[in-house]
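Subgroup meeting minutes
Present: P.N., E.W., G.H.
Scribe: E.W.

1. P.N. recapped why we're keeping a running log of single-chain structure predictions: easier to compare across weeks, and new members can see raw inputs and outputs side by side.
2. G.H. added today's entry (268 aa).
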Amino acid sequence: MNNNVINITGNLEKYTLQIKKHLINLLQEKGFTCSEEYNPNAKLNITIGGDGAFLRGVRDSNFTSTIPFIGINTGTLGFYPEINPEQIEQFIDDYINERYRINEISLIESEIVTKEITKKIYAVNDIVIKRMDMKTIHLNVFIDKNNLEKISGDGLIISSPMGSSGYNLSSGGSLVYPSLKTLQITPLSPIISNAYRCLNTSIIVPPEFEITIYPERKEDYYIYVLADGVPFEFDGLEHANFRTSKNSIKMLTTGAFNYWDVIKEKFL
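Output recorded in log:
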């Protein structure tokens, strides 16, 4: 028996719920079974909302899903969701007739090592490191085991190519085309003075290189980590590693997604 289950998730906004109900009715008419909770045996994940709904859907899959994702945009920015509500019927027709392709989206993998635990954290867009009390943090940065510099400032962002257009761009980082599979280090409000010296620009790192940070001072042991906006707190940080993960997520596109068009539409 062919698998015809489709996972559908979304935010709780009134308009999103209307679109969700409409989508479920259309899919059921075509013989699909819709699951409003994550089903690991489904054939497709559809998120409804903005980028937050898309990223939440990926988190619900525990970053291990081989089921492709596609988003319907009922939010504001909508970088990841490529389908507008008025295109739903055309999308279903394209999907049934296999007029689509699957793209691989790289993930950031981090390893936070404290005196008590080692925890792996994954992200699609970015991982942000700050001090728990939000004061100036001092971090020694190593790239491929080479000591680059000490970053002193509000913190740093480790971003993926897809995430480079988010917080990273707002903080002075560079846009990176998604297929490049790099990591980018962007300091947050770096201090440049006679007392502190560090780069005030982002650094783009190839995927085979690992980034490691070490806290310099006792006060820097207590950190606040944001992975795609989801907060984690850690006491007694010893070091943290960041790399391009061997895991990836699959993103279904009907050809409507064009990176340069999205950049132009959303940011220019």
